[in-house]
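Problem 12. The chain below contains 308 residues. Write out its predicted structure in token notation.
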Amino acid sequence: MFSAILYYILIFPISRLPLWLIYLIADVFYFLLRTVFPYRKKVIIQNLQRSFPDKSQEEIHLLSNHFYRHLADLMAEGIKNLSISQKELSKRVVADNPELLEKLYKKGKSVILVAGHYNNWEWMITSQNHLFPHQAIGIGKPLSNGFWDKKLNQLRGRYGMIIAHAKNFKDILATNKNTPVSLLVLTDQSPTDSGKSYWLPFLNQQTPVLFGAEMMAFTYDFPVVYYTMKKVKRGYYRIILQTITEDPRQTSWGEITEAHTRLLEKDILDAPEYWLWSHKRWKRDVPSDLEALKSQQKQNFEKKFGRV
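Solution.
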């Protein structure tokens, strides 16, 4: 009940304001984040220090401030996303090379779009179905708050995106089997099971990466395309697509996961302030028998897909 009241009385009315005015609220929020209520400061600083061990404390502090600036803008843009028109959104999020997906669509091929929580992923979710010809499907985790889960998914899908999760995406794919789809998967969350994750060095530390995108690519034989989101200026973004593979079943175990993780890492190193540093990305302990685990994972994978 409280969530509904908060949404209808405060948050949604704010979303109807012009974005420039919401940014003014975000400016105040940014000041509070830096000074009065330093949101997850310990997590952010620790993540930055481990990822950039060569940077000084002054440089780490500056990066954290830049991230808070970005986080405040994400808040503003996230609120605006609740009511933003498709016309306005199409001016603010554009694709540089949509022809890459258009060619796959003309071949009747569905694709897996992979990326991380970099720049404004919520605007990408809302934009995807009108940016590209494929039927957009977003795969994520249900929110613990029932009201927000239902409301946000309803709004995310108002321009055609189909929202799915681990338990129902197979049924959704079956329903859309005659239509090329683009499955959006954000791969940089901390996995719940480190034993089923793909481990690799990422930002100077051993990191478990969700293996679902690669498993789906092999299972359905979907090409895999990485997208990056570049910030042009405040409130404006460019989407750039890059093919990882059009023939996933010809790749080796881990090759797809390695590729999209390296591309995300490059984006982060180029402009680190736009990644979600407040996420507890490295909360899983590295397995003591990591090499044995990876060897067993590879064997299981190759057996499952007839590689042995």
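Discussion. The chain has two domains: 1-83, 90-277+294-308. Students who got a different answer should revisit the alignment rule from Section 12.3.
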